[in-house]
Amino acid sequence: MRKALDDIKIADFTWYVAGPLCVRYLADYGARVIHVETARRLDGVRKLPPYKDNTPGINRSGFFHNYNCNKLGITLNLEHPRARDLAAALVRWADVVAESFGPGVMDDLGLGYEAVSRIRPDIIMISLSSKGQTGPHASLPAVGMHLAALSGFMEITGWPDRDPSLLYGAYTDSIAGRFGAAALLAALDHRSRTGRGQHIDLSQYEAGLQFLAPPLIDCASSGRVLGRNGNRHTFAVPHGVYPCQGDDRWCAIAVFTDGEWAALCRTMGQPSWIDDDRYATFLSRKSHEEEVDRLVARWTAEHTAEEVMATLQAAGVSAGLVATAEDLHRDPQLKARQHFTALEHPEIGRSTYDSLGSRLSRTPAGLDRAAPILGQDNYHVFTQIFGLSDEEFADLAGQGVFD
What is the reported pTM? Predict the structure, then answer.
């Protein structure tokens, strides 16, 4: 079955998370992607665990694999003078150029938007830098942890009497990559109607702010500043994660209405609590929140997280187990949706990869190819796509052009 973006070609100069994730969305829907790296300065994600079989290696990172499926992989030393012609050929071939370096890096390499638009006037270029291409802090380096702090996520994560909590992973990268994919699709649609390309300047920092719109709006309108409040919620009691049977097993429970509270009480075998003055109304439960949490935790500790979730959901109470990675891989809903796909990788063998979660009925996405090992497709790309002879390829390789 034909994929939605079969006719699109992308020169992918991105690294780390936001850029590769952005491009992978289009690759999964059929775009032909050439992912450009250099052995002289490895993508940092190649050096991050988890590694398959807990064996470190630049071709074994689960993070790198998951963000770079469905891509051809080449190495090109863009600081080498003879690499510039190959980069220009790559731009002429592409519909889209994607990069996620700091402002000015692509200009220094002769691949800024003005330069690539001279090579191909209708080119679409997306730059996914940490804070955008302009502004007083644009040139300051940052990674996802810094941007999660700058965006405000850490200030509202944790307990009120403790330090802010770190968010796991590059949180804003995961947001920015998805915004970037949507922006690219809009630019491709615009070009299909007008014939004109454009430069997309995406700030990972600003993309992250979109996920904090409610507290930002509240602050602007009322002056209230959201702070850390543990697992509690302004309009729900109980609201938290509660210990269950087993090693480090938990279930999240949220009760917003008196009807949900009554259902919870009946499920816990405590119908008398429904009309107890300490718990009968939301305000009374809120004033006894610590006690309510203790009562709920005492009940959940007698059951598995799966039992708590299933029993409460059947009673109309919002509940969900706190899933581990192992739980996700055996989750019946994800299995039914075929969320995980097994692919064969030349070094690590068979492993599973995430799908994107969306389903197009006529032009579905699909995972067809594992992420490349470093420089895996050099020979194919430079000889079969860009027409170098075997002698030319060997000569350039000997000069370090493909380092």
Answer: 0.93
